[in-house]
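Exercise 7b. Backbone tokens:
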């Protein structure tokens, strides 16, 4: 088992290169199943969720060729099954994208129910609503979601999402790409990775317009051919490093980002007294003065992202004054707060709200990650804390952060990964 050992209290200085977006990659790789040809995908992050997605596709008959550490060629001309491996698919939340991809291209799909969840219930009723509207029959049996197009091919439909759902928007958009006729998704989510998936599908021959707005129009085509596509930089990875500088202090140049995607995070950090200088594809982040309190409410894009909520709460625990954090997307995304309290944080959680009373400093402690972004928040807190912290269950963190130890060491952080006797790092369920 791996632990991170961090000696905190050192400001961060230097440059960090942001990797490809995890939440784009875990949708685009399943979408490659729809392509009757070879997809060359570039700027893929080297994270365990991506490795798992590629193994799932290989298990279905896809040919995977690693061109270099961040580029793969995926050949889905000889897919021999539409039933995913139960053991593999159940480990990752994003396995639901396999339904849209397989149903869209082959008219049928059998996908293991996605992994459980570390922050509340994560239904997929809106995904099913879209598939059903397009003429699919969807049943859950024996731990699998069985979906089949009653006429053998989906047909276009109008779908109004009851909740703004990233997954449902992406899944329905994917399935509609090869459906017969036109589909309109209303009340669609607008996250950057949704636009990225639409751009990927269009580069393979799909006809999708309006991604990034709340109304997406898809004209079904008969076939997707091959092509090349580069994944966008990860907004949340970049935001996490910005939060690390805010908490630990120092000055860091964040490279390979799309500034527009960072606006909501930049604005919030500037309210706290952090300086952010935006250039074409970089942000220079500097924090030298005391952090100021502020209030945060997570919202669908372009609002403040829920996937930055644990990280910003860790920073606010060191701000002067009392801050209010409201989590409006997920029901129970504060499980990490108890770990921050071990370090001296003063946070009271009541339902969707956390009242964060800033303290003068945090102190290092043995702490445990409970999910991907919670783990990132603990790293941020440990970097700022006085003394040593040991973080366990870091495999959660490594699901979504490429080379986080090396990247932080490159910024002068005193962090190292240590192998300790204990259970294997294999996660019961990859969540996120
Ligand atoms: C995606 O999850 C991300 N995961 C999550 O990131 C992220 O927190 C979330 O979007 C919101 O941005 C991936 O992209 C793999 P939703 P997803 O459908 O698609 C409710 C991370 O840390 N809902 O947008 O599952 C749902 O309960 C992970 O990288 C329904 O009610 O999220 C939630 O309250 C964690 N019915 C809200 O909508 C549905 O059918 C938003 O969920 C679907 C969702």
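Sequence design result:
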């Amino acid at each position: 088992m791996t632990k991170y050992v961090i000696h905190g209290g050192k400001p961060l200085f230097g440059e960090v290169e942001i990797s490809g977006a995890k939440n784009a990659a875990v949708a685009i790789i399943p979408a490659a199943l729809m392509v009757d040809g070879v997809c060359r995908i570039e700027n893929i992050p080297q994270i365990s969720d991506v490795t798992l997605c590629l193994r799932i596709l290989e298990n279905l008959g896809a040919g995977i060729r690693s061109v270099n550490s961040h580029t793969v060629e995926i050949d889905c001309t000889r897919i021999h099954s539409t039933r995913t491996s139960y053991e593999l698919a159940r480990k990752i939340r994003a396995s639901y994208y396999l339904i849209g991809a397989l149903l869209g291209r082959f008219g049928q799909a059998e996908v293991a129910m996605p992994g459980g969840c570390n922050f509340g219930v994560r239904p997929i009723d809106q995904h099913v609503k879209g598939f059903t509207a397009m003429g699919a029959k969807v049943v859950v049996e024996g731990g699998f979601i069985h979906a089949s197009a009653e006429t053998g091919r989906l047909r276009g439909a109008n779908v109004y999402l009851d909740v703004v759902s990233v997954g449902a928007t992406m899944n329905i958009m994917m399935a509609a790409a090869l459906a017969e006729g036109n589909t309109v998704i209303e009340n669609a989510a607008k996250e950057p990775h949704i636009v990225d998936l639409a751009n990927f599908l269009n580069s393979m021959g799909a006809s999708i317009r309006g991604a990034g707005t709340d109304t997406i129009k898809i004209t079904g085509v008969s076939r997707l051919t091959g092509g090349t596509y580069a994944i966008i930089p990860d907004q949340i990875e970049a935001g996490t490093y910005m939060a690390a500088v805010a908490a630990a202090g120092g000055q860091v140049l964040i490279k390979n980002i799309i500034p527009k995607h960072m606006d909501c995070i930049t604005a919030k950090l500037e309210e706290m007294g952090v300086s952010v200088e935006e250039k074409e594809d970089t942000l220079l982040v500097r924090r030298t003065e005391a952090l100021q309190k502020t209030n945060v409410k997570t919202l669908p894009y372009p609002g403040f992202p829920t996937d930055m909520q644990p990280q910003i709460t860790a920073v606010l625990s060191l701000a002067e004054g009392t801050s209010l954090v409201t989590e409006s997307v997920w029901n129970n995304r504060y499980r990490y707060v108890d770990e921050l309290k071990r370090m001296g944080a003063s946070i009271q959680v009541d339902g969707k709200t956390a009242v964060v009373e800033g303290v003068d400093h945090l102190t290092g402690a043995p702490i445990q990650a409970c999910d991907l972004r919670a783990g990132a928040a603990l790293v941020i807190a440990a970097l700022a804390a006085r003394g040593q912290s040991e973080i366990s269950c870091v495999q959660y963190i490594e699901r979504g952060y490429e080379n986080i130890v090396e990247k932080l060491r490159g910024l002068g952080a005193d962090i190292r990964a240590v192998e300790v006797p204990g259970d294997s790092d294999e996660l019961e369920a990859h969540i996120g």
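Instructor comment: The two ends are 21 Å apart (CA to CA). The pocket of EPZ is lined by residues 22-23, 26, 93-94, 122-127, 163, 165-168, 189, 306-307, 329-330, 372-373, 400, 432 (CB under 6 Å).
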